[in-house]
């Protein structure tokens, strides 16, 4: 993460250095816009399940899930010119897609309660992360009448749901850093390419005590790296 921040800081410094040398019209990029986005997400979740000691033994199981999946989304934004070659781009994005992490605990409090389900089935729990959204701001340097580059920082959220006899954690929140390039045509159509990284807060839950012991706790630490291509229209 520190290396990524260092790289992004260097890119931002490069933008500032080039403000005086770029010769372009920022009005070609200014104004409201909408777009459709195709993205490849690499989502990693490092999870831990812990059982508090009841007989002097503390048990910890670690699970790691890595998934690479395509996702589609939409974006809306408004680019505000602050000079002949600079803009501030305010952007909102939504991506569909999901990732699931599962834990299996065969030490249930009361065993099978219906005479059919096994202890393993009753003790299985999972986290599901879906519906990722980001609200961001992007200082943008216009390189020519048709091309610009930008650095983006944003606040990201994701919905979290659970299955199994555990408490429901709050939704994800985190910070997104990204760099990108945007090309625009005279008719207002634009193409954007972007690469970024999101570091989310951790999520955690505890057993409710029926099929999963209240001594059991579960946690996950999600991170996302992505590449995206957007096709849109500037009004």
Amino-to-carboxy terminus distance? 36 Å
Write down the CATH class: Mainly Beta
CATH topology: the name is Porin
Mean pLDDT: 78
The biggest sheet amounts to:
8 strands, antiparallel, barrel
Explain the overall architecture:
The chain has an eight-stranded antiparallel barrel. The protein has 235 residues and is mainly beta. Helix content is 9%, strand content 63%. The protein has helices spanning 2-17, 119-122; strands spanning 31-51, 59-81, 86-104, 124-142, 147-163, 172-184, 189-200, 203-206, 216-234.
Care to give the gist of this entry?
With 235 residues, this protein is mostly beta strands.
Write the layout of secondary structure elements.
Layout: H1 2-17, E1 31-51, E2 59-81, E3 86-104, H2 119-122, E4 124-142, E5 147-163, E6 172-184, E7 189-200, E8 203-206, E9 216-234
Antiparallel strand pairs: 1-2, 1-9, 2-3, 3-4, 4-5, 5-6, 6-7, 7-9, 8-9
